[in-house]
Amino acid sequence: MSDNTSLLASWLQFLPTLLVGLRQSLWIIAAVIVIGLPLAFCLALMVMSKRRLINAVGLVIVEVGRGMPALVILYLVYYGLPRFGLNLTNIASVIGALAWNYSCYCSEIIRAGILSVPKGQLEAGQALGLKPRITFLRVIAPQGLRSTIPGLMGQTILAFQDTSLAYTIAVPELMKQAYSLGGESFQYLRVFVLAGLVYAAVTLPSTWITTWVERRINKAY
User: Most buried of the four, 22, 26, 73, 165, by CB within 10 Å?
Assistant: First the structure.
């Protein structure tokens, strides 16, 4: 492509390929959410457990997952697990790595939400003769999880941005497609500006929705 090609014309040429990459990125983040949120809830319960072994295991998983950059976790999964006989595809590796990283951060958000429920709610459940498990599932958890929604949505936006790391192991997501287009056309600046706009087209509305949800929840309180 010539340098004299107009910016709009070059963007129109790049956009279909970038949208193919965006579809792959959205598929990855959807899988990360489906795996990561239930895992985050389990990790939050493990960290809050009064049993020392369960509490210790939960703490180790969460702190290691939060302590390492997502890119390091991705490399450990993709390049490290085959040494132990577990060979994952590049897409499975990025989903597994990002789901672990995502679940560790979300578990702390969920734990904070559950702990924010006044103890009087627990005492009220006990006064009504409810079993601790029923009190937690029907009284504590619904109230605590409701306050975590804005935080979880914000963390999901960050996880979506982390899907760009998948290009390092040749997953054909948005960043990988942008890099390939740049190599073919040598119009790196134009390609990456457009890729940034595509990312922003997803993250900015998501941020606005998160802010709106947060205000609605605060009004309810």
Answer: 73
